[in-house]
């Protein structure tokens, strides 16, 4: 294999498509109306880079450990380490390099963020070695990583996320993780992952359904109780002069529309299409789901930064 092919295989092993998960680090700045503050935006971008590098470092270790078993999986057998393009030694070496770079950048953000980053990567390694092999703990572990990412945005910027948003993140992460395990069980059976031996279809159906409902309820509570950030923009002044009562409405509740559609669509993907095994690919390629995410983002930006 040529050096260029090895390089591209290494980039593939870093799973850059998975970095989409780390966009949640921008949530604290976004929801507090500080996304376009230069200092806050810089910290959020640095935090995103740190967690992306840490995630890739953990993927290399995970794939090096799982390579023998991945070679028998219909999809994972094509991963660079499983197919033999990258040796486990090279994977570990590059993982340590990414770890050093990421933690060095984390020190620039602030000390608390550095310690949280260190905790995140140690937990990732622990998950690869132990937790993902245990039923229930594997789902909770996947969800916990989403929660840490959202909380890391708080630590990096100093702005807090509303409690109902944090609960939404928790239940949404559990919903996605349960759907992931369900699709794995349906598509590959229990041989592809040790923890799947302790699950059955009915149990995973129950998990997926209850966490989907909990996600919707938690987000609905956020839209009802949260007060939007107040700005003095052009639209705000226009409404104040012509439709003053409109400013007192609970505009966040409008964003329930794409959220409801998104949950229903993702449920359809999990239950009807059996494609929840790779959530990052689903979110990036399924046009109806992608549209609902973009519409939600546009609505939130309008409410927070325009009204």
From TrEMBL:
Q: What is its main location?
A: membrane
Membrane-spanning ranges: 45-65, 86-106, 112-130, 135-152, 158-177, 203-222, 251-271, 283-306
Could you name the domain of life of the organism this protein comes from?
Bacteria
Q: Name one GO cellular component term.
A: plasma membrane
Q: How does it sit in the membrane?
A: Multi-pass membrane protein
BP GO terms, sorted: glycolipid biosynthetic process
Q: Where in the cell is it found?
A: Membrane
* CDD domains xrefs: PT_UbiA_2
In terms of Pfam families, this protein maps to:
UbiA
User: Entry's Gene3D superfamilies?
Assistant: UbiA prenyltransferase (1.10.357.140)
The name under which this protein is listed is: UbiA prenyltransferase
Natural source organism: Candidatus Shapirobacteria bacterium GW2011_GWE2_38_30
């Amino acid at each position: 294999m040529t050096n260029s092919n090895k390089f591209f295989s290494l980039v593939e092993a870093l799973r850059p498509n998975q970095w989409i998960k780390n966009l949640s680090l921008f949530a604290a700045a976004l929801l507090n109306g500080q996304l376009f503050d230069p200092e806050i935006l810089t910290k959020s971008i640095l935090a995103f880079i740190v967690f992306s590098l840490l995630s890739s470092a953990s993927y290399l270790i995970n794939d090096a450990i799982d390579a023998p078993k991945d070679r028998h999986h219909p999809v994972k057998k094509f991963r660079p380490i499983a197919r033999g393009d990258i040796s486990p030694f090279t994977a570990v070496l590059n993982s340590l390099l990414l770890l050093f770079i990421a933690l060095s950048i984390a020190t620039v953000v602030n000390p608390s963020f550095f310690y949280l980053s260190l905790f995140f990567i140690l937990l990732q390694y622990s998950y690869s070695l132990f937790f993902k092999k245990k039923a229930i703990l594997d789902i909770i572990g996947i969800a916990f990583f989403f929660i840490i990412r959202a909380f890391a945005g708080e630590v990096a910027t100093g702005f807090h996320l509303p409690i109902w948003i944090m609960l939404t993140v928790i239940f949404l992460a559990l919903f996605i993780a349960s759907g992931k395990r369900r699709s794995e069980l349906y598509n590959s059976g229990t041989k592809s992952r040790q923890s799947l031996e302790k699950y059955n279809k009915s149990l995973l159906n129950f998990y997926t359904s209850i966490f989907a409902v909990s996600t919707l309820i938690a987000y609905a509570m956020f839209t009802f109780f949260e007060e939007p950030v107040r700005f003095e923009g052009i639209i705000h002044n226009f409404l104040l002069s012509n439709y003053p009562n409109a400013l007192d409405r609970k505009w966040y509740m409008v964003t329930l529309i794409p959220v409801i559609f998104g949950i229903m669509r993702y449920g359809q993907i999990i239950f009807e299409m059996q494609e929840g095994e790779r959530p990052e690919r689903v979110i990036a390629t399924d046009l109806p789901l992608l549209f609902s995410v973009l519409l939600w983002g546009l609505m939130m930006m309008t409410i927070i930064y325009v009204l």
